[in-house]
């Protein structure tokens, strides 16, 4: 397959001829600590906007802070220490939140998390295209995030996302360096079932 | 912006220079009723495989039936009538299921739906690249799906996905024809908040 980045090709062998963007997207921890400007990160939110959602409700809400913003520290403080260690070198931290109900009738929207995951993936893919890296984390204090970022009732915190410039793995601690490679995936037959679920 | 398809450009004006793939992906209902072969649909599942997930758990499971399969009727029967009306012209129907727990410790995985939404988005984008259309639905009988497709405890049914060849809108009922266009999105300032959530 053409188009795979060198570090990716060492670890990942897609079985079908797909857009290399999907395989080139991975979740590094090593970020440079450099600032990003709006022209770099706004296209990521723009890509996210166009994700599909139930009744086109667009459940996703992106709360963010750049490392120049006063609130950056507040966002970083929400992370567990193992994430904060590397994620404080992000250019932008994003708390991704979803609205649990439909705008048109106020009823519970079963797919609010699922649809918001689609928006996150668009963000991550556009970042890859722009030469930036992203890493989503569930290692954060969800309750503190809801409280300190004024998330209203009826909205769920989904995850924190670090967006940054990729740094060499050597900038990480020894322990994190060992995990700094594009992860492989399960074989297709573990996740794909023709007909019903396997017995 | 270059690269937007004609029917999309009439309805959608992205505000940033992003990959046109995100904007060209939309959710038509008009499908031709033609069969798809494995070479057409396997890359979609392959793209989905490479989505990110918490602890790389890869919560997604794809249960599918092609229109040649005995089980196709079973899948179509799970849909509400308003979806079945058009979705029975899909080439492949997919019931997307997520595992609610981590493989490595059996504990609840908070982001199983969110992560599975990321996999769905990869599938939809690769379909767009291949010239196929996809449409995800929450209009189905979730309980019947779990039961009839042998979905084990600890797995959630997320949605049904129709994959097919795009047909002219005139093949739809008058009512559905009126809705057969690429939907627009909320303005950025409704979904993007710098710092905490707006008061």
UniProtKB/TrEMBL annotation, chains A, B:
Pfam families with a match to the protein in the record: Nitroreductase
UniProtKB keywords: Oxidoreductase
Keyword Cytoplasm set for record: no
Start and end residues of each stretch annotated as Disordered: 168-199
Gene3D superfamilies given in the database record: NADH Oxidase (3.40.109.10)
SUPFAM superfamilies from the UniProt entry: FMN-dependent nitroreductase-like (SSF55469)
Stored InterPro entries: Nitroreductase, Nitroreductase-like
Superkingdom: Archaea
Biased composition (Basic and acidic residues): 176-199
All residue ranges annotated as the Nitroreductase domain in the record: 83-164
Molecular functions per Gene Ontology: oxidoreductase activity
Family: Belongs to the nitroreductase family.
Protein name: Nitroreductase family protein
Species of the source: Haloquadratum walsbyi (strain DSM 16790 / HBSQ001)
Lineage: Archaea, Methanobacteriati, Methanobacteriota, Stenosarchaea group, Halobacteria
């Amino acid at each position: 397959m053409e188009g795979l980045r060198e570090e990716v090709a060492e670890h990942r062998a897609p079985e079908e001829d797909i857009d290399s963007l999907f395989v080139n997207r991975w979740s590094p921890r090593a970020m440079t600590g450099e600032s990003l400007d709006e022209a770099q990160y706004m296209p990521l939110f723009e890509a996210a906007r166009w994700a599909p959602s139930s009744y086109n409700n667009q459940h996703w809400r992106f709360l963010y802070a750049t490392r120049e913003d006063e609130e950056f520290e507040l966002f970083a403080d929400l992370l567990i220490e193992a994430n904060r260690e590397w994620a404080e070198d992000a250019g932008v931290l994003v708390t991704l939140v979803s609205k649990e109900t439909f705008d048109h009738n106020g009823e519970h929207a079963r797919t609010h998390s699922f649809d918001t995951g689609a928006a996150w993936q668009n963000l991550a893919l556009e970042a890859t295209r722009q030469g930036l890296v992203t890493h989503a984390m569930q290692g954060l204090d969800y309750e503190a995030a809801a409280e300190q970022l004024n998330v209203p009732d009826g909205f769920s915190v989904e995850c924190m996302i670090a967006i940054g410039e990729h740094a060499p793995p050597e900038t990480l601690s020894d322990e994190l360096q060992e995990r700094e490679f594009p992860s492989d995936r399960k074989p297709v037959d573990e996740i794909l079932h023709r007909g019903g679920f396997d017995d």
